[in-house]
């Protein structure tokens, strides 16, 4: 690790000012950023530690929406009785991230801001049609994820919370790497008030919605309907773990399991 400065503000205003004045990077749980720094893939001169900002924490719900503060850890989401009652699939997803140490440090805000192609949270955010609240605006999930490690966030913009509409049914199933527990392919299926939404992670350079699966499940929300869909391998990832064709095969298989799990 190389040398860097660290700033520890206690308010969002101070954090925003520090990012602007230093050109540094915001640090949440550090499970993505610190690993990138060790590999020299990211080399900020200053880290702005957000961990002391109380307004970035907390989990709340009303009749139609579940709101999760950006600094909520994966462990807090997975163990929250509020999350389990509102969106059980989200608690299940959080429980399946990494190992216990990662879940106790990593945060939902840090995960979606980093937008790793194989991360689990982006699938939930996109499938549930969530809204990302930042220090300057509200961003719809469909407008947030732009590409590999790329989001709509501007320099110095900080995620403050994520609001999830509570679905009628939802489930997430992933085929995980046994070493990292990242998704080789992960599929989140949600039956919402606006219709069926299906988001896929791990299969492509960035999370995406599967229009073919959404159309099939709109006609018939059954496991058999999902499994009958053919997904093209064009544009999908290929690596030592799985070929594009194998990932294309996995998508409808996992979607069918998610539909079955959603009931």
Write the layout of secondary structure elements.
Blueprint: E1 5-7, H1 12-22, E2 25-27, H2 33-38, E3 46-49, E4 59-61, E5 65-69, H3 74-79, H4 81-86, H5 88-95, H6 100-105, H7 108-114, H8 121-127, E6 131-134, E7 138-140, H9 141-144, E8 145-147, E9 150-151, E10 159-165, E11 169-176, E12 183-192, E13 195-201, E14 208-209, H10 211-219, H11 223-227, H12 244-262
Describe the model.
The chain has 263 residues and is an alpha+beta fold. The chain folds into two domains: 5-165, Uridine Diphospho-n-acetylenolpyruvylglucosamine Reductase, domain 3 (2-Layer Sandwich), CATH 3.30.465.10; 169-262, Enolase-like, domain 1, CATH 3.30.390.50. Helices cover 36% and strands 24% of the residues. The strands form four sheets. Strands 4-5-10-6-7 form a five-stranded antiparallel sheet. A four-stranded antiparallel sheet has the order 11-12-13-14, with helices on both faces. It starts with a strand and ends with a helix. The model has no long low-confidence stretch (mean pLDDT 95).
Summarize the structure.
The chain is α+β, with helices and mostly antiparallel strands. 36% of the residues lie in helices and 24% in strands. The chain has helices at 12-22, 33-38, 74-79, 81-86, 88-95, 100-105, 108-114, 121-127, 141-144, 211-219, 223-227, 244-262, and strands spanning 5-7, 25-27, 46-49, 59-61, 65-69, 131-134, 138-140, 145-147, 150-151, 159-165, 169-176, 183-192, 195-201, 208-209.
């Amino acid at each position: 690790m190389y040398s860097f400065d660290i700033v520890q503000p206690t308010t969002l205003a101070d954090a925003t000012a520090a990012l602007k004045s230093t050109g540094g990077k915001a640090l949440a749980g550090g499970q993505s950023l610190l690993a990138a720094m060790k590999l020299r893939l990211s080399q900020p001169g200053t880290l702005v530690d957000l961990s002391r900002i109380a307004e970035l924490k907390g989990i709340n719900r009303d009749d139609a929406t579940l709101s999760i503060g950006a600094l909520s850890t994966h462990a807090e989401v997975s163990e929250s009785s509020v999350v389990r009652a509102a969106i059980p699939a989200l608690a299940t997803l959080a429980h399946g991230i990494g190992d216990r140490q990662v879940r106790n440090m990593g945060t939902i805000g840090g995960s979606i801001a980093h937008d790793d192609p194989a991360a689990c949270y982006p699938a939930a955010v996109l499938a549930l049609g969530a809204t990302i609240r930042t220090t300057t605006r509200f961003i719809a999930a469909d407008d947030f994820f732009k590409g590999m490690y790329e989001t709509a966030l501007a320099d110095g913009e900080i995620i403050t919370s994520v609001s999830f509409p509570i679905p009628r049914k939802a489930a997430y199933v992933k085929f995980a790497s046994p070493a990292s527990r990242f998704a080789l392919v992960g599929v989140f299926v949600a039956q919402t008030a606006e219709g069926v939404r299906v988001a896929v992670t791990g299969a492509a350079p960035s999370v995406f919605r599967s229009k073919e699966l959404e159309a099939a499940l709109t006609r018939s929300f059954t496991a058999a309907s999902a499994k009958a869909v053919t997904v093209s391998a064009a544009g999908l990832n290929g690596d030592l773990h799985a070929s594009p064709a194998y990932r294309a095969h996995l998508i409808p298989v996992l979607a069918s399991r998610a539909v079955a799990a959603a009931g």
